[in-house]
Amino acid sequence: MTAAAAPSRAQGSPNGKPEDPRRRFELLQDCRELVISRLSKVIGEALTKMSEELSGLALKSRDQEEQRSLLDAVAVVRQHRTEIELRFRRSFTDVFERRLFSRQGESSAAQDAGELTLVDDSVLQAKLALDKLVHRARGKLDPDEALGIRARLAALLDREWFDEAQHPASPEAVFEALKASLNELAPRAEVQSALLDAFEPHVSANLNQVYNTVNGRLIANQVLPKIRAQVSTQADNRKASADERQSVAEPGSKGAGRPSAPGHGSQPGEASAPATAIDHEIMEVLAQLSSGAPAARASATRMLSNPDIFAVADLPIPAAKAPLLESLTDLQASSAKVQSVPAELLADVGARAREQGSPLDQLTVEIVSMVFDYIYADKRLADIVKQQLLRLQVVAIKAALIDRSFFARRQHPMRRLIDRITELAADPDAELAAGSPLVKGVEETVEWVLLEFDRDLAIFDEARERIEGLAADETARRAERIVQVTREAEHAEAVAHARELARARVSDRLDPETPEFVRTFLDDWWSLALAEAQVSSESAPIGFDEGIAVAEGLIWSVAPKYPEEVPRLAALLPKLINGLMRGVRLVSMPETSRGAFFDALLKAHTAAIDAAKQTAAVAASRKPSNLRMRADGKIQFAPVVPAAETVRVDPPCVEARSVMLGELNRGDSIEVDTSGGGEYLAFRLAWISPAQRIFVLSRYPEGAMSLDRAQLAEMFDAGRARVVETGSMLDRALESMAASSAPAGLAQSGEAVPA
Known about the structure:
Number of helices: 28
Strand order of the largest sheet: 8-7-6-5-9
Radius of gyration: 34 Å
């Protein structure tokens, strides 16, 4: 006997779920959005607090490597906060859906098959660390809430229940998504570990509330309102696990990606329930298309994109006609033999759909073709990649016929592949010339899909993994291309930050009577010299501490003097002038400015010496000073009003009126009018400094440019820069088609589109 409990259903409906399949789907979607939105909010609130929390840990740490990792983690949070939130939402959505529909990953499949693999020590350590976080989070869960969400979500899918570690909102799912979100942004394992450790308390503290909300929603809809625990045997558990694995069919076959149902993604020749109402709706839309009704395409797109019809597992959606699928397989083979798909081949697809397909098949072919027309018309995509996408059009039609959820479900494998390729093709900094590694890789991947795809949609997931590998290689090449600009930008950012600290340190030492020319020199030039000394400590001709001592000597030298201090001033001056000269050479202070400063300094010293010869009464009237010279000739900083122990550097205050610069993310596309003549070129936002002061824009092959915050703000406000819309191109195509009678991309492009 095991200690684990299985839910015993005790409620009104026989199966513990709404009888109406559409209602079940609506509840599933509702719970999905509820979990995703609540957890995304948890992650967003955690990121708000983590910078301060990690900084506190870094200050307490006595281990230099640990301190470095924590400070790097702080920089990642500050620089990529918005991107981490977006990546988490996207990753968790993927994980949630995969677990919801029991699609096993390669690793779990290998374990089920009993395969043994060698694992790198670092990978094993990372997994053990992640397991500890999961264990910690699970230890804080309310068992009733955890059991409830496992059982109730399963009931909506007509399953017994989810295993503890496999349900869609489990701690494993959350940390899997978090790790995926951080992989690129924090590639160093120690930094990633620090970030995951920082997330854990926030996840653990809020997961129960998420479960409670979902359970409450499902109970209110009479989904397992009462769950009675019962003891199950190990044999029962083994049988359930085996049954569950058996029920997970290959993607693209009956039951793949969702519970099995007649006609939904079924193989040719399988029986399917009649769908008179659906056929009637389809016939109406086809009649509109045939008559040239202006809104026909929009109606067709809205119908096929309706999740109530085409993303519900057990609605009686008719399977595609076998002769049509066989014809598409022949056309697919023809596409594999050419690099540029002839228009007559694509026209042949529509003809065969009319001859061999059902009304739904014809409609599917029509809308997929329109989507590709929209993509082809987008001027942001490189033409050389558009040709490869056109080669996939027959495959996309076939995939949409095999799994009817193509339009209604964003996670459809073929949709995800198309989206990833178009994302790369629209990247202004990608090397997309003929023969480049990226273009050759895309061509080879498309060729492989055309040769290998038959009925199994898993082929598209594998193809997308290949594209991800190409994208990673391109990212590495891009980093090499812009490394010099980035290095200069990093230096400028470090200098700007160090300069703020230097100004604060010098400001504490100023006296009320410090002359204005000295204040201006210290603020404009000496703070820069101190910053350069701090950032380039090994190569700088003057050190930071020595520079502070020079500043103290300068301030003291121009302050009113007692008669006995005059000899000390005379002894200090040679060393002071030498230090000042080394500093101004470091920052290349212009000759005219330098000459004017030293002339004013000579006059100030003369005035101070003359004043020291006056009566003692006048000397006694001096205001208190922060600096005094000791008997050994060294300047001592003894503030009249103690300075704060730490200096807080305020965030950058420069902001554009038209765009929130703080919401920009690495990877964003920004169009820039470089010449001022109204002709815009697309650039990729390649790098943002941790303090968001420096922005690097990159475009291949033109190169990269570095802009400070004020420069970029001015460009946006003057209309010489604008953010380009991002996101799924396929989503935009469907939205445009559903909103109008023709794809907006075609109306605007003026380009000829293949039939």
